[in-house]
Amino acid sequence: MKNSAKVWNTGMICAHLTEILFINKQFIIWLMRVSFVLFLFILTSLQLLMAVEVNGQRMSEYKVSLKLEEESLLTGLKKIEAQSTFRFYYRKAEVKQITGLHLAFNTRTVENTLYELLKNTDFSFRQIDNHILLEKRRPQTGYTVKGRIIGQHHKPVELVTIQISKITNQNITFSALPDTGGRFILKVYEQGDYLLRVSSPETDSLTQTVTVGSTEVLQLPDIVLTETAIQLKNVTIMNKRALISRSVDKLTFNVEGSIYEKGENALRLFNVIPGVSVLGKNILFRGSESVSVYVDNRRILLPGDQLLAYLRAIPSESIKSYELKAVPGAEHDAQHGGVIINIVLKSEYKYGLSGSISTGYWYTKYHNTRGNAFLNYRAGKLNIQGNVNYSRAPAFYEDNITQEFKSTGAFSRQTEKYTEHYHAIAYNIGLDYKLNYQQTVGFNYNMFSNPGDFSNITTTNIDYFSNAEASSIDSSSYTNKNTRFSYTNRMANAFYRNKLDTNDSKLDIGYSYIYYGLKDPSAIETNSLNGFFTNTTGKSMIHVANADLEKHFSNTLTLNAGAKYTASGTDYSMDYRIGLSEQSPLDPLRSDRFRYNEYILAFYSTLAKSFKQWEIKLGLRTEQTNYHGKSASTGQTIGRNQWDLFPSVHLNKKIGENHSFTLSYNRRIERPGFRQLNPFVIYTNPYTLQEGNPNLLSFYSNNIQLEYLLKNKYSLTIGYQNTNNAITTNVTNKGNVIISKDENISDNDNVFMSVYIPIRITNWWEFNTNTTLRYRTIDIRGTSPLQRSKFTQNIWATNKFNLPGKYFIEVSGIYNSSSFYDIYDQFSIKKIDITIKKSFFKDRLSSSIELQDPFHLYKPQYEINTPEFSRNVLRSRLDWARNFGIHFTYNFSSGKKQSSKENIDAAGNEARRRL
């Protein structure tokens, strides 16, 4: 019985448990349903909370940015709704009749915006929660304020403006102009206290309180204006700002409002940016660091001559500032392009046509000419820009070379002359269209080409001696290389921008297509060997897609995030023929074709936060690089697939108004150029050649620097840079043949200190100087490892003289001490330039006379010294180094000022650099 009882009790327990489980199952299902409903409710609430503030917005506090141009009231109301949480209620039949409204672009409260839109109508408005009701005013004649304005002699005063506004809301203003007798009439619609303001350029201004009561017409006594006691003539009062300002990740050189605002151009202004100098066709920072040039956040990738011509065509009158990023953040591509300098243009494109035309002539040992035209046309929501650049500027150099082969003692003197008569063409067209206040779409296309010319000739004369002391020539060699090098570089870019809020938050989406093609046929003829013919052809195609978000949570907190995908494909071939023409027999052993494909996927994010005296910006970028290449002749393949991280940190501390400290760090990558990877042999002559290297690897660098800025004028920077496994040119020999080849054989450590000091000696004499001191160590890997180090100095200085009659003279100079040329010795260089400038027609036309290196000081020289041979190269003449020229730029514009074309970065520009 006990056992049976136990069985029964167990069964009862199981049944009870089953019932409980069934009930709990129903409860669980019910609970899940309730939870799901609660989840939806919470999610919806969160969305609402994110969309609307917890407390209802007041139309007297909430701000919107708005402009109307011959548009209807309905359009204006929809634009307000698009930027705010308010919704309007009205009779459509009544409101749609109000058209042809004009409202200048500005940021106003919703209340003030509605007053502006409705002030000449019979509508009134009122807010109910987040709704705004428009309704016709009750029939009323309003209140009239009448009066007369006269001068001290009881005569009317010219150019008088009268404004009346409510004391409780002075932004709501009604205005009028007096008639020829000085009488005026103002209309207001409410009783209360008003401020009446009367002003004229020839008299004192007057402000007085006016009370509008129940009387429909208020007659004021005569208002008497007295002449001002002091009149200033020929005085211009400008908003003065610091010439140099510092934010957490960049140094800003403010052109607008400075002495450099008129009569300059974008190229010349590089010479007044701290640490920056233009040396020939190169723009350098601190004497040796490369510079990447951007205009309105778009990288300008032009070869030397074309870049300089493009920058000359940008007048200083259209430039707002220069932004210098010595240590770029994670929002920029990790591909190292040197220091970034972004030219920010003024946002003042006008309705109608505006632009500039420039031209120039200069003499080296050949005649050079250039011309540039920049046009901007604005009509309604459409903005179109176009730029055409043409130059015919022969390029040349003359090298004097001595060589000694140490094993035999053989010695040679060599003269190499290169001359190229070519013309370069570049043009750009861009347009954008504003779908509405928030959204903009646009398209840009640019093309650069260098059509080949039959006269591209390199001649080499070599005299051989038995040793360096010998006076008689053992033998001689003469080589003539004739080539018709030409290239075409095109890029098309489409973009979409959505301004997310009134705090300048925005989302950018873009796509770019880039094409690069070249032809380089060369016939090499020599008196000592049979001639041969090489023909290098190639093309590169790049597709880039990007999405970038900039979110301002407040005035002190900003998030940037984005993604970018780049797909590149290159196809290069080199035909080597035994003979002097393209029809000569092909040499298959030395001919080759190389195909290379590369895919880069990148994600980045930065977070910037500012406090009272501190600013901090943290960033992280990750990039996946996947590439593979193959040689058609040898079957050799290369490939790699890897992820890399690139952090950046910027920290700024301000102490009072005169002191600022900035600490910056980043990690960067340098990938080999597409043409460096081609396994081809490029001949200058049979005894000097360059080999490509498909085994080149990317290398990395770390950069850290601390900058101190005093009074927004003087700066002191100390820093450290290092690179591992860097690509450098290694020069070797096989007998009397010199071979150059890029290899990953160098580790570099670089410690530097840079000082910038501007001094205004007198009102007409300004002196600026920048000095950089470096200690650089190079570890060279190879069969015989070697460590080399040098202490180098770079000094740049300029004197600016402002003379009567709007004449301007600038004398500038640069000195670089002995340094490194790759891993070899670079001798010191120096140069002095003189510029005389004059402006006409209210600074619309500027002219300049330039004397580049009139004393013929610039003669770069380097020496290669290995255990096998020594080679000393002196460049005695160079096309851009020494010349005399005259240049003109004319700026024109018409129409009223209008907001600018959208400044959106074309994401493909970074990839384009490696072509």
UniProtKB/TrEMBL annotation:
Residues that span the membrane, as ranges: 27-50
**Residue limits of the Outer membrane protein beta-barrel domain?**
499-890
Principal location class: membrane
A GO CC term attached to the entry:
cell outer membrane
| Molecular function via GO | carbohydrate binding
Q: Which InterPro entries match?
A: Beta-barrel_TonB_sf, Carb-bd-like_fold, OMP_b-brl_3
Write the record's keywords in alphabetical order, separated by commas: Cell outer membrane, Membrane, Receptor, Transmembrane, Transmembrane helix
Q: Does the keyword Transferase apply?
A: no
Give the Basic and acidic residues compositional bias ranges: 899-915
Annotated region described as Disordered, given as residue ranges: 895-915
This chain belongs to the protein called: Outer membrane receptor proteins, mostly Fe transport
